[in-house]
């Protein structure tokens, strides 16, 4: 039995050149020894030697270390063990270093970090591995350092950031047009590094919080929004995907009206198909085959994705957003927007709105999971939602 427990333990590697910090971490997390296999090393080279001996699930690294700093270590981890989640532990005075690490880190934690925060972030990160059982797909997701943004949007953002008269509200409107940009902004603002007590789900709030200087650093220095070249995939269009995401976001917000969750639903809809971008970047040949098979057979793409990859684009996108630290309601809505009936407990407002919006944006008469929507308390609103979708389509706001 003890051998079975050892096999199921998650392996966590902590890296810091300060022996006092390592000792403090060991003391903070002593209760986790029963559920985690933890190792503590004092340099980047020692960390890489440990990884080569046996892969780990999570690497938590300090930023400021001699010889090999945290950003360089995590870049090497990304290349050698892309399936490992990568977390930075950094001081507030190191914002420039954090920008440099943004391309290779999934989450950021601020020093000093309390045991509950550290434990929660690591447990949630480990839990997200359950979304994707195929190790090769986890490697592809983990190996991504950026998501391609539609070129027009990227250049519009960089131009706006170079003009001092352009306000942050206008910058936020540009970011909202692009799922990849939105996801990266939300990743950074929701990291524990910034010390927010509550998760930020509004893109406009996130842009305002980060400010023009940090956004300029992200867009122009770190190049995390770079308009990457995509391999051509027959049947896939980034522009069409973005147009569908915006139409869905408009509807999701409309569906919830004055609800406090309307902003969450808007954001979730903007990024709900980010998994398709992951596939276009990391598995273009397989994506092309899936699209062709779906078209030729008339079978749902979701079914073919699960059959071919062991996971759907929805689950792949949710996994990425989850390890980036986005709020749970957004991750949940992305994961289940095609199959909302898989969620049976708790508040489902955001999921319901995104499921309906992403479906009706293309066809206001399309079939919805009415049993789920009724259970979630929205059965009586379906006729009104379809009317909103028809009107949006007529006004040119549909997908």
CATH top level assignment of the largest domain: Mainly Alpha
Percent helix: 55-70%
Strands of the largest sheet, in order across it? 2-1-3-4-5
Taking the alpha carbons of the first and last residues, their distance comes to 54 Å
How many domains, in number, for the residues?
A: 3
Compute the number of strand runs: 5
Q: What is the N-to-C order of secondary-structure elements (H for helix, E for strand)?
A: HEHEHEHEHEHHHHHHHHHHHHHHHH
Indicate the mean pLDDT: 84
Largest sheet: 5 strands, parallel
What is the beta-strand fraction?
5-15%
Question: Helix and strand layout, with pairings?
Answer:
Elements: H1 2-8, E1 10-15, H2 19-28, E2 36-41, H3 44-53, E3 58-62, H4 70-80, E4 85-90, H5 95-101, E5 107-110, H6 115-127, H7 135-143, H8 151-161, H9 168-176, H10 179-189, H11 203-221, H12 238-256, H13 262-270, H14 274-282, H15 284-297, H16 301-309, H17 313-323, H18 328-336, H19 349-360, H20 370-375, H21 382-394
Parallel strand pairs: 1-2, 1-3, 3-4, 4-5
What can you see in these coordinates?
This protein has helices spanning 2-8, 19-28, 44-53, 70-80, 95-101, 115-127, 135-143, 151-161, 168-176, 179-189, 203-221, 238-256, 262-270, 274-282, 284-297, 301-309, 313-323, 328-336, 349-360, 370-375, 382-394; strands spanning 10-15, 36-41, 58-62, 85-90, 107-110. The protein is α/β, with parallel strands linked by helices and 399 residues long. The protein folds into three domains: 8-131, Response regulator (Rossmann fold, 3-Layer(aba) Sandwich), CATH 3.40.50; 151-221, no CATH class; 238-394, Hypothetical protein af1432 (Orthogonal Bundle), CATH 1.10.3210.10. A five-stranded parallel beta sheet has the order 2-1-3-4-5, sandwiched between helices. Strand 1 (10-15), helix 2 (19-28) and strand 2 form a beta-alpha-beta unit. The longest helix is centred in the middle third of the chain and has 19 residues, at 203-221.
């Amino acid at each position: 039995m003890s051998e079975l427990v050892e096999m199921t333990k998650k392996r966590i590697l902590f890296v810091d050149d300060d022996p006092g910090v390592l000792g403090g971490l060991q003391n903070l997390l002593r209760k986790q020894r029963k559920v985690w296999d933890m190792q503590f090393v004092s340099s980047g080279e020692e960390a890489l030697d440990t990884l080569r001996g046996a892969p780990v699930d999570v690497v938590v690294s300090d930023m400021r270390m001699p010889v090999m700093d945290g950003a360089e270590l995590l870049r090497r981890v990304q290349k050698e063990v892309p399936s490992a989640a990568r977390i930075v532990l950094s001081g507030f005075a190191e914002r420039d270093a954090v920008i440099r690490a943004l391309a290779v880190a999934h989450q950021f934690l601020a020093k000093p970090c309390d045991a509950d925060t550290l434990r929660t972030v690591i447990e949630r990160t480990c839990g997200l591995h359950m979304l994707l059982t195929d190790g090769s797909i986890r490697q592809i997701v983990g190996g991504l350092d950026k998501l391609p943004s539609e070129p027009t949007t990227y250049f519009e953002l960089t131009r706006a950031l170079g003009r001092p008269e352009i306000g942050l509200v206008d910058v936020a409107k540009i970011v909202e047009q692009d799922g990849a940009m939105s996801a990266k902004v939300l990743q950074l603002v929701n990291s524990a590094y910034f010390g927010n007590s509550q998760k930020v789900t509004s893109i406009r709030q996130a842009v305002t919080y980060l400010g023009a200087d940090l956004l300029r650093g992200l867009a122009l220095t770190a190049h995390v929004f770079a308009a990457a070249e995509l391999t051509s995939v027959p049947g896939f269009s980034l522009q069409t995907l973005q147009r569908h995401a915006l139409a869905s976001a408009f509807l999701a917000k409309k569906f919830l009206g004055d609800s406090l969750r309307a902003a969450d639903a808007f954001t979730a809809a903007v990024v709900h198909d980010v998994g398709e971008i992951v596939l276009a970047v990391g598995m273009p040949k397989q994506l092309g085959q899936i699209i062709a098979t779906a078209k030729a057979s008339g079978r749902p793409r979701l079914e073919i994705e699960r059959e071919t990859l062991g996971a759907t684009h929805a689950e792949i996108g949710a996994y990425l957003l989850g390890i980036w630290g986005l709020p749970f309601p957004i991750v949940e809505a992305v994961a289940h927007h095609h199959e909302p009936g898989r969620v049976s407990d708790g508040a489902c407002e955001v999921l319901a709105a995104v499921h309906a919006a992403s479906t009706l944006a293309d066809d206001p008469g399309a079939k919805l999971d009415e049993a789920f929507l009724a259970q979630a308390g929205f059965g009586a609103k379906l006729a009104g939602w379809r009317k909103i979708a028809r009107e949006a389509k007529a006004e040119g706001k549909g997908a």
